[in-house]
Amino acid sequence: MNNAPGPMHRTRRWLQDVPLADPVDRRNAPMLQIVLLLIAVPIPLLWLYRILGTGLAWRPGETLSLATGLLLSAVALFSFMLVRRGRMQWAIRQLLVLVAAVLLVTYALKGMSPHVFELPLQVMWLFVAGMMIGRRALWAMYAVLAAALAVGAISEARMLGEALPHLLGDAVIRSVMFLVIAVVVDRTTRSLRESLNEANERGRKLEVANQRLEAEIVAREQAQDQLLHAQKIETVGHMASGIAHDFNHVLSLILGYAERAKTAEVEDELRQAVDGMESAARRASALTHGLLTFSRYDATRAQRFDAGEALDEVLPMLRQALGPRIALEVRRAAGPSPVVFDRVQFGLVLLNLATNAAQAMPGGGRVELGLETGTGPDRVRIWMRDGGPGIPVEVQARMFEPFFTTKPAGQGTGLGLAIVHNQVTAFDGLVHVESAEGTGTLVTIELPLAGEGDRPEARSPAYQASM
């Protein structure tokens, strides 16, 4: 389908493409150019046809008409060129001055009757003067027309010997007709210009209001940036205190294992202490990796592994995180429990749950940890129950929000459960919390059971985000 503009559209665009600043002049420019071309082009062509194509004898007075017509055509063509250069007012004024002079001269030489068929053209000059220049030009042109009619009546009375009062009466009638038209043009153009001025004033007010609104938007954006910066500073403070607390706990674990290694009497005790220190170091690495993952600075790496084996690996860290005053009871069904998850994050999830359980029972107690397969359609269920005081309902509604914590300042970041929720849901898992005050808390995690043909990347968050 051809969407190229046609000749009429290109011509209209060309007529509108003039360097004019005044909006009224820009609107009138196309019409004025057409009028000037209609004056400049046909007159020479008609006289050329009169001279070469008719074969008629040259009549008296035609030389003056030829000279007048060619002069008007030349001025119209020159005015057209001025409009194209953006000098519209000069073009109109010089054209109207020439028209006024031609009217006075021709009426004085020929009288009033030969111009009877030119009345519509003379009305057009009233419209041009009023709409394209202003009131003064309109009434000046009207005065020229009235004077030309009076001069024509006097000249015709002398040439033809007719009664002057009759001719003057005819001139007055035509002058009244021109007067009515001039009044209509005057009122119409005045209303149009008043409307245009009001529109321009409204536009200026809107521009000022828009500038004020833009300034307010910039100020609001700056205030919002400052608020975000303040929130970031506050978040960094929470994270710094919480991370310091978590790493202090990890260092305590390492120091505890180191003391055990010093007092170990047999090789198995020494090996267990070293394994505990290694597990604590892995926990620190897992904590850092979890924080990076949560803040989107590090990518989660999906792996296919057995949840039971991963649970066995992290048990020493869980026991150390719970401390000697809390008993850990593990209930794990026999058989494989394959899942697709980040193995490091799997340990971090369990450590976060154990840390929350330990903090809920500062005086000691019992924690139950379970792993079941086949609890739902192709699901692996991991649960942890503590004997703490329980979680209030209003806290349960916000417990997975980042940085939300009920702990005192410096004793937690509020990221633990948020990391658990983000990691589990990123791999199509579910997290449930059942708790009531005085009955303890049960946190249940459900993960999809991995099939033999499951690809780890197909369930990774990065892979899903690209789908």
Q: Work out the number of β strands.
A: 7
- Integer tally of domains: 2
Mean pLDDT: 78
Structural class by helix and strand composition: alpha+beta
N→C terminal distance: 36 Å
Helix content estimate: 55-70%
Helix tally? 14
Can you tell me the residue ranges where pLDDT is under 50 for at least 5 consecutive residues? Answer: 234-239, 293-298, 408-414, 462-467
Question: Your description of this structure?
Answer:
The chain has 2 domains: 7-212, no CATH class; 264-465, 2-Layer Sandwich (Heat Shock Protein 90), CATH 3.30.565. Helix content is 66%, strand content 10%. It is built from 14 helices and 7 strands. It has helices at 7-16, 23-40, 42-52, 62-84, 88-110, 119-132, 135-160, 164-262, 267-294, 307-322, 343-360, 393-396, 416-426, 461-465, and strands at residues 303-306, 326-332, 338-341, 365-373, 379-386, 430-435, 441-448. The longest helix is centred in the middle third of the chain and has 99 residues, at 164-262. It is rod-shaped.
In short:
The chain has 467 residues and is of the alpha+beta class. The chain has helices at 7-16, 23-40, 42-52, 62-84, 88-110, 119-132, 135-160, 164-262, 267-294, 307-322, 343-360, 393-396, 416-426, 461-465, and strands spanning 303-306, 326-332, 338-341, 365-373, 379-386, 430-435, 441-448. The strands form two sheets. Strands 2-4-5-7-6 form a five-stranded mixed β-sheet, with helices on one face. Strands 1-3 form a two-stranded antiparallel sheet.
